[in-house]
Amino acid sequence: MPNTPRSYSRLTEEALLLLGKQIRLARKRRRMSEHDLAARIGIARSTLQLIEKGNPSVAIGLVLEAATLAGVDLFVPEATTLAPQVERTDDKLALMPGSIRKPRYEVDDDF
User: Which of 47, 60, 87, 97 could make an SS bond with 43 (beta carbons 3.0 to 4.6 A apart)?
Assistant: First the structure.
């Protein structure tokens, strides 16, 4: 079977493009070169260029690190930690079932 590129929804593609542009804008506002930010992240300049173009093949950890180091506010403006949000989400997850399975058969309960 040939390798076909993965397709993404339009909203996903737009979100990646927007985040990439926000990273680029924040980097330029801080007067950081591509080389400087890439070196701080520990990646090649070409990888940073892919991030800024919104390429979906870049690891999410690298994208978030680029955003953080460039100064893009993620999730909560000017947050230094996301621990409270993580804890609240953990509390909500604890109330959810451990796993979700599709029923093996459909019950026809119409009388």
Answer: 47
Cα(48)–Cα(68) distance, integer angstroms: 13
Which residue in this structure is represented by tokens 């300049």?
45
Residues whose CB falls within 8 Å of the CB of residue 73, separated by 6 or more in sequence, listed in order: 79
- Of 62, 68, 57, 56, which is closest to residue 27 (Cα–Cα)? 68
- Cα dihedral 77, 32, 60, 97, rounded to 10, equals -10
Architecture of domain 10-94: Orthogonal Bundle (1.10)
Measured CA to CA, the distance from residue 64 to residue 42 in angstroms comes to 13
